[in-house]
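@channel sequence for tomorrow's demo:
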Amino acid sequence: MDTLELLGHPVRLRIVHAMRGGRTLTTAQLCARLPDVSKAMVYRHVDLLAAGGILEVADERRVRGAVERHYRLRQERASIDPDTAASLSPDDHRRGFAGAVAALVAEFNAYLDRENTDPAADAVGYRQHAIWLNQDELTAMISELRDAILPRLANQPTPDRIRYLLSPILFPSEQPPAHTD
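structure tokens (generated this afternoon):
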């Protein structure tokens, strides 16, 4: 299974999200973080991600006669590189986008299903904005967003930090104007 196929499944994508931040987690700990997913499905997808090189075994311990594995994310394998992204067909993009949106919807539903959820206090947002940009403005905006997001991707989990999912989605919603010479 290639990286695109591995990351295109909503449950596998949620496992990858749960592993970010340098975490090492057991499959049982992942099950606790994904309570809406059956244990059998979590175990199956962890096995696929490990076989595909996206997760690796960080540690093994004997617990009550069984081997308990702690997994960690191989960050360099957990994304689609720009060259691969450029080579994707429209159908590949459809599948990838559908998987990402399905994972996002599942994560949001899991958030709302927790006890004492307060979207207002948690500053939950899901707005869409229509913006008009030329190529230079688009490039500048993407660079500014990267500059704002990249430093925070290095944040490690701490007792005072909550993991948030930030899912920027950007695409032209209209046909570009025809160029007349």
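heads up for whoever presents: The two ends are 47 Å apart (CA to CA).
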